[in-house]
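hey so u asked for the seq, here:
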Amino acid sequence: MIRSGNIRIALYTLGCKLNQAETEFLAGEFNKAGYHLVSPDGTADIYIVNTCTVTHIADRKSRHWLRLARRKNPEALVIATGCYAQRAPQELAQIADLVVDNKEKDHLLELVKGLPLQTPLPIIARSRNLERSKGESKESNAPYNTRVRSLIKIQDGCHSPCTYCVVPRVRAHEYCLPAPQIVEEIRQKVAAGYKEVVLTGTKVGCYSHDGADLRGLIEGILRDTDIRRLRLSSLQPQEISAELLALWQDRRLCRHFHLALQSGSDVVLQRMRRCYSLDDYRKAINLIREAIPDVAITTDVMIGFPGEGDGEFEQSYHFCQQANFANIHVFPFSPRPETVAAKIPEQAREHVKKERAQRMLELARYCRHSFYVPFLGRTMPVLWEKETNFGSSIYSGLTDNYIRVFIRSEKPLTNRMTPAKLDGFYNDRMRGELISEDSSQGKG
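ran it, C-alpha cells below
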C-alpha cells in the first residue's frame, strides 16, 4: 500500500477555474495526509494531471503533460483525472498509470492510499458512488501556488443545450454545495492567510441550495466572513439583475464581471443554442455599468463556428468594438466528439479561423489598452501575487477590477494589498508606484 512518508506529489492543472479549485482541494488533502507537495516542474514520486477537454488543444496539452511527467521520473506514478479522463479514459490509459473520472476526483487520496506499491498498467478508476457527508468541509490550509487567492467551488455540472460544448458530457450531474459549508471554508481560507476568494463552478449564476440563491450566498459570505476580496469567476447575461448588482455597494466585491458572449451575431448564437440574444447581452452590460463605476467586463469570443460567414464574423467584430470590453478571450472553434456542432457540414477552414482570430486578438489588445487609459494617474488598491521572476524585485498584482499591475520593490510584496499609483504602461499592462503597505479594507 502507498503511504505518505516523504513521498513527493506534484499537481498540474489545465483548463477552467473550476479545475483549479478542485486541484487546490486535492493539494490540501494530500498535504494534510503527510505527502510532500512539489512543483510540477520538478521531480516527484506521484504526478497528478487535472485535464481539460474543452478543445482539441486542451486534449493535446493534457497528453503532453502526462508524457512529460513520465519523462521526468519513469518510476513515478502518473495519474490523469479531470474532464478528458471523464470523456476518453481508454485514450489516457495508454499514457497514465491511473485514470480517474470526475466523479472520483475528490477521492484521489483514498485511491492512492489503496494502491499496491507496484501499480500495474493501466488502471481505470470508475465511480464507486462515494459521498461526503453534507457537513464535511473541503478545506485545505495548504499553500497551493501562494496564499493570495483561493478558488472555492460552489457548484458543478451543466445541462445547457449549447451545440458546441462537451461539458454536459463530462460534468453532467448538476449540484450546489451548502452555503454554510462554503462560508466555513472561506473562514478557514482567511485564517490561512488568503486575501481573495473566487467563487467558481460550471454555472455559478445558477447557484441554489436550501432556498439560498447566488445573491443570498454572497450576502452570507459578506456578513459572516472577513475576506478582503470576493470575486465571481463568470456569469451569463440572463443571470444579471438589479437586485444582484446592488450587493456591489460592498467594496469587497470585485468590480469585474466575465460574461461569455461567444458570438456577436444573433444568427450564430441561435445555431449555438445560447440562451440569450444580443439585445439581452446589451441590456446586461448596460445594467452593470449603470450600477458599478469603473467596472471591468470581460468576455469569451469563439471564432469560426460552423456556418459563420464573413458577414456574421464582421457583426461579431463590430459588436465587440461597441461593447468596450476590458478584455476578450479569443479562441477558435474546436469540434468536440458527439456534439451537434461537430456534425454540421459547413466547418470553417483553419486559415480562415486563424485570420479572423488574429483580427479579434488585435481588437482585444486595443480594448484592454482603452480600458486601462482612464486609470492613468489613479491610485488603486492592488493585491500583489509574486515576483515575476525569482530575484527580479518586480511584482505582479491585480486591482479589484482586473487591471494587471507591475511594480518594482526591494521589499517582498507577495500577499500584500497596498495602494499603488498607476503611472504608465509595462509590457502591454500597467506600471505602478507603491504608495504605502497593507492598506486595510473594512466592510461596506
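Residues 376-434 form a domain with the OB fold (Dihydrolipoamide Acetyltransferase, E2P) fold (CATH 2.40.50.140). Residues 119-146, 438-444 have pLDDT under 50 and may be disordered.
lmk if thats what u needed
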